[in-house]
Design brief:
This protein is of the alpha+beta class. Helix 1 packs across helix 2.
């Protein structure tokens, strides 16, 4: 189960490193790091330092690997009393604040077999398992007899090939060295190889054999960072909520003002319509001749021997029906009036047998007062 978890973690790490997101995160991290003050960058490098352990016969050499440089710490003899040596090493690490940093056992280059392996690009999804299957074909060892790690050197997407540097060391000699270090409290959390005076940056040790490093300061910093990030998220969420709430309030106020403006517009439209109607009536009233004036004028121009049976007064015309001693002269009388014009009979005149008067039906147009 631990091996399967190790494989899964390794595959996940490889996928992340080879993905566009991994490239972006590495670039982003470099840019952020370069923006930091030199003192803060130095502090970050100091926090990432590692204790490097080298076994050479009966001597144990301790060094510090920090910011790409190796600094020798102390060389002790394994012939000393194990309990005294353990206490001595513990005091040394405590004084140098190295008790909670990673510890890497460094192997010489001649103890690690390096071999370039070409695999299908699809094997990257389960690369560690694929290399274990290829172990007896690519090296003189079986997978169960070695500890190994790998570095992806190139990806040829055009030909679908993956180039991997496989690094292998025999299992049993390394286990013997770890057994010598455990009584001294120096069990490693990783096994690396020394190449050109620098650690290669691998870990040959399986997950189940690695010493678990618990850095209380780093854990506290991580907790503080997580709390700060959580507070930042809460502040951002609260800001977004407040902004959304303000937008909703402003939108509600706008809707209310828009509703009031619409009501005002409707009232103004009704007022304008009423004003137009009133103006139209006033114009019509001003343009038309009052009925009283028409009656007065008709009464004035008609002779005493004439009377009306019917009088129709319209907006622009007047119809006169009645009886007269001389109906023909009525046309002249009506046309001579300044209030009427274009007087004419609507039909022939007839003689009333009872009154012996002529029956007439005259239609005339009204002259507007503005003329």
């Amino acid at each position: 189960m631990i091996s399967a978890l190790d494989n899964s973690l390794q595959n996940l790490r490889v996928r992340l490193q080879s993905s566009q997101a991994g490239h972006f995160l590495r670039w982003w991290g470099r840019e952020l790091r370069d923006m930091l003050p030199a003192r803060l960058r130095a502090g970050m490098q100091h926090a990432r330092r590692r204790l490097v352990i080298k076994l050479d016969g009966d001597e144990l050499a301790l060094s510090i690997h920090e910011a790409g440089e190796m600094h020798e710490l102390e060389v002790v003899s394994l012939d000393e009393d194990p309990r005294l040596l353990r206490q001595r090493l513990s005091d040394l690490l405590s004084d140098r604040e190295l008790a909670e940093v990673s510890r890497d056992l460094l192997l010489p280059e001649d103890r690690v077999l390096a071999k370039e392996v070409i695999l299908p690009l699809a094997a990257e999804a389960n690369l560690k398992q694929a290399l274990a299957f290829e172990m007896d074909r690519q090296t003189p060892y079986r997978a169960d007899d070695v500890f190994f790690d790998y570095l992806v050197t190139s990806r040829d997407k055009e030909h679908g090939q993956l180039r991997v540097q496989l690094l292998v060391t025999p299992r049993q000699p390394l286990l013997n060295e770890i057994e010598r270090l455990e009584p001294l409290g120096m069990a490693p959390s990783g096994v690396d190889v020394l190449v050109d005076g620098e650690p290669r940056g691998i870990n040959l040790l399986p997950l189940d054999l690695r010493r678990r490093v618990v850095n209380s300061r780093a854990r506290l910093n991580l907790m503080l960072l997580s709390a700060a990030f959580l507070l930042l998220v809460l502040v951002m969420a609260q800001s977004l909520w407040l902004r959304q709430h303000q937008i909703a309030e402003v939108q509600q106020a706008i809707d209310e003002v828009r509703s009031e403006a619409l009501q005002v517009q409707q009232i103004r439209k009704r007022i304008e319509d009423a004003s137009e109607a009133a103006g139209f009536l006033n114009e019509r009233r001003a343009a038309s001749v009052p009925t009283v004036k028409v009656l007065n004028e008709v009464t004035r121009i008609l002779p005493d021997d004439t009377y009306l049976d019917r009088l129709l007064i319209d907006t622009d015309s007047v119809q006169l029906q009645g009886k007269s001693q001389n109906a023909q002269q009525l046309i002249e009388l009506v046309n001579e009036s300044p209030m009427f014009r274009d007087a004419a009979f609507r039909g022939p005149t007839r003689l009333d047998s009872r009154t012996q008067k002529e029956m007439f039906d005259i239609n005339t147009s009204l002259v507007p007062e503005s003329e």
